[in-house]
Specification:
The chain has five helices and six strands. Helix content is 34%, strand content 15%. The chain is globular and about 50 Å long. Helix 2 crosses helix 3 and helix 4 packs across helix 5. It has a three-stranded antiparallel sheet. A three-stranded mixed sheet has the order 5-4-6, with no helix packed on it. The chain has a single domain, classed as Winged helix-like DNA-binding domain superfamily/Winged helix DNA-binding domain (Arc Repressor Mutant, subunit A), CATH 1.10.10.10. Strand 2 and strand 3 form a beta hairpin. The protein is of the alpha+beta class. It binds zinc ion. The site of zinc ion has 6 residues, from loops. Zinc ion binds next to loops.
Length: 163
């Protein structure tokens, strides 16, 4: 019966994280600013506007062109080049995950946790696949390298109506 008491020896009381997350819930824009600063990105107006479009609607999969169109509709004055740059900066900072679906098109996923995807060919729609994909045998990576991540994209097409 000599279980160590987990908190008895801890002198670093850190009650702040919880308090901060409660405080932030009230103001999504300051949440976004904090989030950008935490990953080392200056919260410029363009980053905040684009971040708002990206992150305010739950998890989504979006291409640069789709985000550009959204920003036009939302009257956010940005160029397509800025949208590309911002998406890549967000990805490098770990706020987005980039998925190369085919040679010409990258999707950016606001859910950066490990998960796999369905891609509906022809309609260019990328969706999260339900859990349950397991990748059994992976090849041995070359010397000095390790597998960072496995992305599975299961390609779908609509079933043509029964003849
Ligand atoms: Zn996803």
């Amino acid at each position: 019966m000599s279980e160590p008491i987990p908190f008895a020896s801890s002198t670093t009381a850190k009650p702040s994280a919880h308090d901060i997350s409660l405080a932030r819930r009230g103001c999504p824009v300051s949440d976004l600013k904090d989030r950008l600063r935490r990953v080392g990105l200056r919260p410029t107006r363009q980053r905040i506007s684009l971040g708002w479009l990206l992150f305010a609607k739950g998890d989504r999969h979006i291409t640069a062109e789709m985000l550009y169109e959204e920003s036009m509709r939302a009257r956010v004055p940005v160029s397509l080049a800025t949208v590309y740059n911002t998406l890549h900066q967000f990805t490098e900072a770990g706020l987005l995950r980039q998925l190369a679906v085919d040679g010409s098109k990258s999707y950016f996923d606001t859910n950066t946790t490990e998960h796999h995807h369905f891609f509906l060919e022809g309609e260019e729609e990328l969706m999260d696949a339900p859990a349950g994909i397991s990748v059994g045998e992976l090849p041995e990576p070359p010397a000095g390298m390790e597998i960072a991540r496995v992305d599975v994209i299961v390609r779908l097409r609509r079933v043509s109506p029964a003849a």
